[in-house]
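Task: sequence design from structure.
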């Protein structure tokens, strides 16, 4: 006999099936029949539209006055340089940065050559320009923090004089897919599961991206929950993502698989956890006593194996929790 319900079933499971630096697979279940897609699609839309990224918004090239211009000694015309620049992905904790760069030929310029002034390039091999033997290229690039997509027509209104506006592709999301699957709950085979696959360009952690999409959904609904006195929390999934990251960041240095020399250099400097290395900027890391280039390269490689980069800017909530946990651990409180 079918039961008569007075409230829909509330999902109880959130499972991280796979978590990599730029890809994650997540499952949420069980949902009442028809409820899964009702929730899945708006979260996908909010992930794509609300995730904050860092992207070029304008460029100034010496000797060029418009996007159909060309520069002597540079194979690509200005229009192609702009297209190539859009395909290079940047990462920074800054709100805005202006890079002033100068190159002489012969040279192939890639994304790696554009990293400067606190700005990291996560697509270092992406091609930007080719300069002939007698050529030179001087340019300035403005990068800003934002979300979604902003067309060049809107950028034009705020671009400094002499700069060519660009279509700004802020989203760090490569892809967000979801599927819904049937599952058995008690004697009912029609309950549902959502399976998300999220991949990024390497600028953002996919699980934190998902958490920010969920937080955006709750924020949009806040006016209704406040009006009707409904209490809810958007923090649970975000807290789960932060906790998962902390487990990795609290890996002890001796468990990172470093050579004895690299381990001893860090230990003598009081560095006990992987997270302490991540919190350092690269200049701080190079100042660790007796840490040579070979050891530095080894540490960077190990960080990448754990899914982090030297000098990487962690989300503020993760960084704050990490500092607190490390301080507690070093004091022997936990």
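Answer:
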């Amino acid at each position: 006999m079918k039961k008569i319900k007075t409230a829909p079933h509330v999902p109880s499971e959130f499972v991280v099936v796979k978590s990599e630096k730029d890809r994650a697979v997540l499952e949420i279940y069980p949902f009442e029949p028809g409820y899964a897609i009702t929730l899945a699609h708006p979260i996908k839309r909010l992930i794509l539209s609300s995730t904050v990224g860092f992207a070029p918004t304008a460029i100034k090239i010496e000797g060029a006055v418009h996007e159909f211009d060309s520069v002597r000694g540079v194979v690509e015309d200005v229009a192609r340089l702009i297209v190539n620049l859009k395909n290079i992905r940047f990462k920074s904790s800054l709100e805005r940065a202006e890079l002033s760069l100068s190159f002489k030929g012969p040279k192939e310029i890639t994304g790696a050559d554009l990293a400067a002034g606190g700005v990291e390039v996560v697509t270092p091999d992406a091609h930007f320009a080719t300069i002939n033997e007698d050529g030179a290229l001087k340019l300035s690039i403005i990068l800003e923090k934002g979300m979604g997509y902003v067309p060049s027509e809107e950028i034009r209104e705020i671009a400094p004089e002499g700069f060519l506006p660009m279509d700004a592709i802020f989203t760090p999301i490569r892809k967000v897919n979801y599927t819904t699957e049937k599952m058995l709950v008690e004697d009912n085979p029609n309950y549902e599961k959502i399976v998300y696959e999220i991949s990024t360009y390497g600028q953002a952690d996919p699980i934190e991206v998902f958490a920010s999409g969920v937080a955006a959904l709750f924020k949009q609904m806040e006016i209704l929950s406040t009006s009707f006195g409904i209490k809810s929390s958007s923090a649970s999934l975000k807290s789960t993502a932060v906790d998962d990251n902390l487990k990795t960041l609290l890996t002890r240095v001796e468990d990172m698989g470093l050579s004895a020399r690299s381990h001893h250099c860090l230990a003598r400097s009081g560095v006990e956890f992987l997270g302490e290395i991540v919190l350092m900027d690269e200049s701080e890391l190079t100042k660790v006593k007796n840490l040579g280039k070979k050891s530095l390269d080894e540490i960077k490689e190990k960080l990448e194996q754990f899914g982090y980069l030297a000098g990487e800017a962690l989300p503020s909530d993760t960084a704050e929790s990490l500092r607190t946990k490390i301080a507690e651990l070093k004091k022997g409180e936990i």
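The chain has three domains: 13-51+173-233, 58-152, 250-331.
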